[in-house]
Amino acid sequence: MKHFFLIIVLIFSAKTFAQENGEKKLGSWHMYFGTTKIANKLSIHTEAQLRYYEQGKNFNQLLLRTGLNYHISSTAIVTGGYGYIPTDGTFEEFPDEINSKEHRIFEQLILKNKISNVAFEHRYRLEQRFLNFGDSNDTQHRARYRLQVTVPLSKIVFLNFYDEIFLNLQDEVFSQNRLYGALGFKVFQNISLQVGYLKNHFKSAHFDRLQIGVFINTDLSKSNKNKANESSKN
């Protein structure tokens, strides 16, 4: 009888522990994306994301990323860049817990097209990931493809959707899939806001995330050109 109760307790404990991965919590991602044009065909990408297991609390991940964009044309952009990503991989807080740290290099191609007034964007990305887990290191490679669709509802309001698949280039191929939908607002000519919902699917877990994103586009090439013109007049 003692053994029977012990088995029941162990099963219940294992089930409770398995649920404590944050899967049933609604988390949040707070995001900033910036594109700064510095020359006719060059721009700089800047990005910061703060991700939580719950709404604005229980830290999961910080993502800082930057890159140099080369605009082949108005519909094709290539990018090379770097990201720094510290991650708390556990929902529960443990004493003396060590977060993993990742240094990431990426190469990217974006292709754009339109059908009527609906904008389509195809993003192809390769990543070289250098991970430090505190007591061990690992190098991983990954490929990503994202299809994004933007539908304008007015001059100010738009809808944004995307689906992105992540594929490992070693071990098990499938990594994750992200399905996203958002309502966007063009606040100013160069600033927009998106409020959306993300379904993040892994093989063994599925997470729901609310997202708030701010997008800022600036053009320094015009100011540099104006300064050059002023200098030539003097």
Report on the structure:
The structure is a single chain. The chain has helices spanning 2-19, 220-233; strands at residues 26-37, 42-54, 57-73, 76-87, 100-115, 118-132, 137-152, 157-168, 174-186, 191-201, 206-219. By secondary structure, the protein is mostly beta strands. A hairpin with a 4-residue loop joins strand 7 (137-152) and strand 8. It has an eleven-stranded mixed β-barrel. The longest helix is centred in the first third of the chain and has 18 residues, at 2-19. Helices cover 14% and strands 65% of the residues. The chain is globular. The protein starts with a helix and ends with a helix.
As residue ranges, the low-confidence spans are: 2-18
Structural class: mainly beta
Q: Total helix count?
A: 2
Main beta sheet strand tally, sense and closure: 11 strands, mixed, barrel
Classify the beta-strand content into a percent band: over 45%
The radius of gyration computed from the alpha-carbon positions, rounded to a whole number of angstroms, is 22 Å
Globally, the shape reads globular
Spell the H/E element sequence. HEEEEEEEEEEEH
Alpha carbon gap, first and last residue:
97 Å
Spatial arrangement of strands, main beta sheet:
1-2-3-4-5-6-7-8-9-10-11
Arithmetic mean pLDDT: 90
Number of DSSP E strands: 11
Helix residue percentage = 10-25%
